[in-house]
C-alpha cells in the first residue's frame, strides 16, 4: 500500500487485532463530506465495545482532523447496532470480526489555487480489545487522499461502510413508551409474523438490569418487552436505546427509540358520594379484624398490661387511658394516610405496608421493638415513679404510655392486611383527600374499638385480677413475643439489604442493649441516692444510643437482594412474576396461580404455610399442571405495584387464579388449603 495516497492508513497490529483509519472513497471533494472510520479486525474470540459497553468495558474513542486547504473535523461515531455478549452475571454490548466505526467528516472549501492539494487526515484513537482479559490500546493514524475524480470512486473498504450503515438503527415508526412492566411499542404492522423475537439495548448503563431476561409479548399492534428496572430508572423521565425486531424469517430491524414514561393508568371508576358509607363500614370492619392479625400480637402484650393497670381504676382513669390510646392510633393512621395520599397525588405507587420496603424503616422498627422488649424484661424503666416524684407525674406518664402504645400498634400492624381493608384502602386512594383521610381515621377507630369496649363497658375490666406481683412476671414473659418480632424483622432485612444490613442491625441491637443496661444502672443509682454515678451512666447510655442512630445513614444505600421472599416458593415450578410470562402461559392454555407476597407481610407467610405448603395442595398443582407466578414485593417493584393497582388492590397478600381459557379472579386475602384445592380442582 502506498503511504502517499491511499484509502487506508498505517496499521496498528497486535496478536489480537489490527486497527487502521479508512475512508469510503479513494479521494475527496473540497467543501463536501467524507466517510471516514476506525477499522478494527479482531481475532476470533476477541471483541470491542459499543457506545454503552454494558456492565463492563469502555467505548472506543477517536478524534480525526483534516489538514491542508480543505480542513475539517469529525462529528460523533455513527454506532452500528452491537451484538449482545453475555458473560455469566454480566452483559456487554460490542463488536466482533471485521468492523468499521464510521463518521462523517465535513470539509471546508479550499482557497483559490489550492484545489488539487491532497487531504491529510490524522487520527488518535483509544479502544479496548477483550476476551478473557481486556487490553487497553491506542494508536495514531495518518492518511492522505487526493482531490478530484477519485472522490467518486468507492474504496476497497466501502463494503465495510455499507455493512455498518445497514446495521445502524433507523428512527422507529412506532410509538414507544416506558411502563412499569418494561418497554411498549405500538402501531400498525406489529404482529406475530413481523415480531417473532425482540430485545432492547439501552443507550446508557445503570437504568435496567442488562443481563436479565427480556420476555416479549406480541399482540396485534402492540409489542411489550419486559425489563427489570434498577433504582436510577425511577428518577429518569424515560428510556433511550435500540430495539431489535426479528421476524419469523430471521430478518432483523434495528430501531432507535426514545420512550417517555407512560402516564399512570386511570382508575376504572371515580369516587361517588354514595360509596362513602360502604367505604367507612369496610374501613371500620377492617380495623376491628386487624386486631386478630398476627402482626398485632406483640402489641397485645402491652395492651394486656394496660388492661391490668386500669382494672381497679376509677372510670375517669379508664376513660383517659382509652382516649390516649385511641389518640395514638388515630394520629398514626392520619400520618400514614397523609403520606400515602400525598405520594399517590405525586404519581408514586404507594400501597399498604410500603414503608417496610425500606431497609432503614425495617431496621428502625426492629430497634424500637427491641428497646420495648428490654423495657418489658425489666432492664430499665420508662415512666416509673422515681424517689421524690409526685403521683400526678407518674399518672401523666402512664397516659403517655397509652398514647405511645397506640402509635406502636399501627406501626406493627401495617405488614398485615385484614379482610375488608383492601377495598377500603383502594377507595380511599381513589377518593378526594378529605374522604380518603376519613377512611383512614375510621380504620383507626376500628383498631382501637375493642380496647375501648373492654375498658369502658362496666364489669369487663373488673373481671381481670387485681394488680400485684404477678404483673411483673407477666410483663417479663410478654417481652419474648417482642423479641420474636425482632428476629422476623432481621430476616426481612436480610432479604432487602443482605448480610451487611444484618450486620449493621446486629451492631445496633448490641448498642441498644448496652444503652438500656446503662440506663437501668442510672435509674438504680438515683434510687440509691448516688446521683453522680447515675449521671455518668445516663451520659454513657446516651452515647450508646447516639452510636446506634449513627448506623442508620448506611442502611438506605445497601443493594437489594435478588432472592424472593421466603425463597422460590413452596409450590414446585414457581417462576418469578412478569406480565409477559403471564400472557405467554395463558396463550398456552395453562391454568395460572399468581401469588403476590413480601417477606415483611406476616399474613402472606401464614397463608403460605397453611394454604400452599400442605402436600395435597402441591400435588394438585402438579397433577393439574398449574403454573405458579410469584411476585416478590419485599423491595419496591413497579411492575408488581402496577399489577396490584390494575386489579383494585394496594397491598399484599393478593392471589389470582386464571383457569385455562378463562378470565382470572381474585382469591380471598385469608387463604385456606380447601379454597385453593377448590380453585385448581384438586
UniProtKB/TrEMBL annotation:
Domain Thiol:disulfide interchange protein DsbD N-terminal, chain residue ranges per copy: 30-143
Name by which UniProt lists this protein: Cytochrome C biogenesis protein
Annotated InterPro entries: Cyt_c_assmbl_TM_dom, DsbD_gamma, DsbDN, Thioredoxin-like_sf
TM region(s), chain numbering: 279-301, 322-341, 361-382, 403-431, 437-461, 473-495, 501-522, 534-552
Topology within the bilayer: Multi-pass membrane protein
Domain Cytochrome C biogenesis protein transmembrane: 280-490
Keyword Iron among record annotations: no
